[in-house]
Amino acid sequence: MTLREYPVASVHPDSPMTEEYRSTLLRKLADQARAELVAAHTYSRWVHRTSNPEEKLHLAALAQEETDHWFRAVKLMEELGVPASRVADYQTHDVFIPIVRVLAGRIRWVDLLMMSFLIDHAAYFLVEDFAQSSYAPWAEMSKGILVEEETHSDFGAHFMEVQVEKIGQARVQRALRKWWPVALNMCGPSKSPHNERYLRLGLKTRTNDDRRAAFRDSAEPKIGKLGLEVPRLLRNRYPFF
Ligand SMILES: [Fe+2]
Ligand SMILES: [Fe+2]
Question: What's the CATH code, domain 19-225?
Answer without folding.
Answer: 1.20.1260.10
